[in-house]
Amino acid sequence: MLGAVLESANISYHILERAQEPRPLGSAIAISANILPVFEQLGIYEELKSISLPHISLDMYNTNLDNFCSLDGECHRAVTGYEHQIVARPRLYDLLHRKVPEYKISRGKKVIRTKERDDGVTVHCSDGTEYECSILVGADGAYSVVRQNMYKKLDEEGNLPPSDKEDFTIAYINMVGISSPPNPEKYPQLSDTDRTHFRIVIGDSNESCLFVTAPDNQICWGIQIQLSADEATQHQFKNSEWGPESIDTMMKDFEEFPCAFGGTMKEIFDATPKHLISKVFLEEKLFQTWYHGRSVLLGDGAVTAMKDAVVLANCLYNMNDTSEKSIETAFANYYRQRYSDAEYMAKSSAIITNVMYGHRWTDRLLRKVISSYLPNWVKTKGGVVRYSNRPQINWLPLVENPDQGYVLPQEGRELVEKGALAI
């Protein structure tokens, strides 16, 4: 996303990608009104809709496939004027990837260390290559080498907040994939091209399974195992990254688990390429420190990370030069605009995750209250807050608010209109 946005401004950039080639890992991603206007600005909103389906409701079932809870998704459109679009993660990646020229991506570049100078940054890769840049953006996830190098320097200087030294909180083990059943007629929900069927089966102990229909007869699925505090501690030293590792045992354990659309998980597993099934530990942590010197970080998460990319690009665009002072000002402005929203989204996302997959008595109670007793006006008010932060690309024509819900003012637009220079 950051590459696509910078490309639209003709700002020089280069992406160092650790993987030798992109692999279509993951499951489904919900693209909300918080970022959909940017897809309109980039001219890919209609294409996004062609490869996704709108989210109307979330239905929850027990292992007997009795529907015991439904959460209405129509309020999204009522509050924002947009429908949530549910898209398979690989297709979203391909859509954004096509906005970035291939020659601006170097693959197989595992960053091992970075070195900052007064006038730039040197990036060292494991294959012996080096890259020079004015600004380094770490968009490499929770275990970011850029962040680790930054934090090491700050810690040596005595300037790293204690909270940034604390471990992640591991909440769930997650295994995901995308199935293409050879007999789609067995799953009549796949024939519905007007909406996605979004279903979760809550297991009897600490497990649950997610099932989402996608265009072209695909079922995006995910298995979640909620961890206790002791179990989380046991897993905290395991590196968390997408990859088809340690999945055989987990697949075996869930072969007989019911699929929300009929049959069992074994049939879903058999219709999913094994090398595209991945397992990851879902970890929670909001870091306090996002930048230092000429290095800056993007968030790790779909919509939140894309909003980070848009706001950071806006702040870079409004720089007059690449001096340390200009960079410090741009990074501070980026942090000011994004931190409070990232904090709110992290907290609300944790609640939503527990409502969807949690097995603790507090999770079950919250699920019951939201589905059965929470008034619609409360849900609507919550949606207004959640979807009010909708940053757009400042140098492109702004997408008008569809007169539904409140949208925060666009920051930095006036500088573009006054003729601020892009770096």
From TrEMBL:
Q: Taking every annotated instance into account, which residue ranges of this chain make up the domain FAD-binding? A: 1-157
A Pfam cross-reference name? FAD_binding_3
Q: Name one GO molecular function term.
A: monooxygenase activity
**This protein's record includes keyword Oxidoreductase:** yes
> What are the UniProt keywords, alphabetically?
FAD, Flavoprotein, Oxidoreductase
Spell out the family assignment given in the record's similarity comment.
Answer: Belongs to the paxM FAD-dependent monooxygenase family.
Question: Which PANTHER family does the entry mention?
Answer: FAD-BINDING DOMAIN-CONTAINING PROTEIN-RELATED, FAD-DEPENDENT MONOOXYGENASE ASQG-RELATED
Question: What protein name is recorded for this chain?
Answer: FAD-binding domain-containing protein
